[in-house]
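S.,

Sequence below, as promised.
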Amino acid sequence: MWRDLYAAAADPEAFFDGPYLRAAMDACVGEPPPKPGGLPMDDLGVRAVLTQSAPMAAVLGCPFQGASAPGVFEDEVQLRAMALLADDIGVGGPDASRPAAFRRLLHRECLAGFAVDAARLASAAEIDDGMFALPAVLLAVSRRADLFLVELAGIDLALRTAGLLSCWTTVRAARPHAAEWDRLDLARGSGLDPVQESMAIATACAELGPRETARIEAAIGWLERALAYWETRLATICRATLDPAHAMAEMLRTRSREASAYHHDFELAGRDLAGWLREAAHDPYELLNALASSRLVRPGAPERSPLLTTLVAPGGPMFRVFSPDDLVTIHRWIAQLPDPAARSVAAAPEPPAPPPGSWVPAGSGIVPGSLREAYYVLQGRALAPRTRAYALDYARDWLERAERTADRGLPSEWVRDGLRAWLLDRHSEHDQEFSAQGAEDLPDRETVIDSAVQLAPLTLIDGAWLLGCTDVALASSAVGCALFRTYWDELGNGEAALNHPRIYRDFLLGMGVRLPPTASLAFARDERIREGSLRLPVFWLSIGKFPRTFLPEILGLNLAMELSGVGGGYRSARRFLRAHGFSTLFVDLHNTIDNVSTGHSAWAADAIDAYLSASADPLERAARWRRVRVGYASLAPQKPRWRARQGRGADGPVLHHPRIRMDSSCRDMS
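The prediction came back faster than expected:
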């Protein structure tokens, strides 16, 4: 079912096979049914449109959510794509995304049951499976930007050009003040012109050659056809939903499995009602007609029908079995029963079927044979099964060692709003350490240059531990909004001059060091970079791929990273960089943006507080805090005594990486 693909694609850690996705793109564009007439925009009509369109609304802004990756942190097209994503998310605060605006509309229309994230929305039986087809494919393809970036550029441009979907335009006419309509219109942005930015991305991709131009044009044509089919089916489903008999039949179908367990002793038309209900899971109309002829229903008189009176009254056998919406559905159906057509209503046309087979090919992926290979292979974002297993093992092994020293970092217990005060104490300690240093502590020029080169694998992927936080749902949550904001800051907020990897490359050039592109195998094999300098970066590249599995550890690691040099280490680095005539821009920038009051360190603490506050169970909170503390300790875990897990091809003890310093007194520059 399409809803299964939709639920799977909602996972930011999901992987999809390229050929399967191409087949899914074809499968979700069926022969459009005849266009139905206009829908009445009364309360029922509005509720039908909003309910059935909820899967699409939940993926607004998703095309570029999986595009950013360490290997392209410095790429101009990627920075533009991230700028669009940041605008769609509403970077800076929780629930500011486009999908969040739709959820607020659902709440206003008393449809809170559908105002949930995509993973939970997939289980809503009231939504037609075909309504998940197009948004499921959009979500899934967004997870493979490594293969489909050119197509995603065309898809995004087509969606931006379409603007506010026609189904929502109809609702807006009836509810002009019920929603933040501009946030549901992909052609309108809050800080940029989305259509213009999307056009620039598509143009840049097209300039790569005629093949890319053809792919973009094909993607635009596909999206236009798929969207037309989706909107036509939406209108067809909504019209069927407004038909009282169809609505009653759908209610029987969705509740039949549960109800069949309780009606073995009730006879309807000479048959066991439980048997009727089991069959209704596939075809509810025979049961519907049998009910219409039974003693439970008085056609045209719902107020005299036992199904709506004695059976559901307090003390009745079906008291509180039906929701208020269910009771409205039953009332409407009984009220129109004198109409002969009501007993032979036709079901809505079947939705297209997703392609058969698994979307994850078994045994696919590369297992790195060394740290250098791991650094190269993990530059991307999507992880095939074998590569995923390697990254998962690496992260787990690293965190297991970090757990041995977790008691030396963050406080033993979490206190609400206590992290801000703790940050100030650590900042004061850093200041004292810096003040105690003397001029004789300055390293020589060669040591400074060598340390800068050893830091390059780490700093050129600055923010990689937050990679998964570009997922639209996570990035707009109370916990994830600060993580995405930090990540976006590391990349310069779309400004190349503020992009941290670019600044660091310029810093190295000032030392006379020119390194290959970060994503190249030549970089990973560069002999100037010692293999030990890749251990911590490989951990970042690994854990950043698992924002769901390791969210508490990522929160702790993020705090450790953002706090590590503020007030002390960066100031020390500035002192000796100036002494040797090197640029101090990189360390100056980090000492300000990572500050403990309004900068990254403060945001990191706020994200942890939001995560811990979300749990009311003290035991669960304690378990979460323990994992956060392990994540904090993972920046500098205990040295291993043994080789990494066998069979992963690690070259020597791949897990240890001491706190990297520019000299003996400087904290991690990154």
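Residues 342-346, 640-670 have pLDDT under 50 and may be disordered.

Coffee later?
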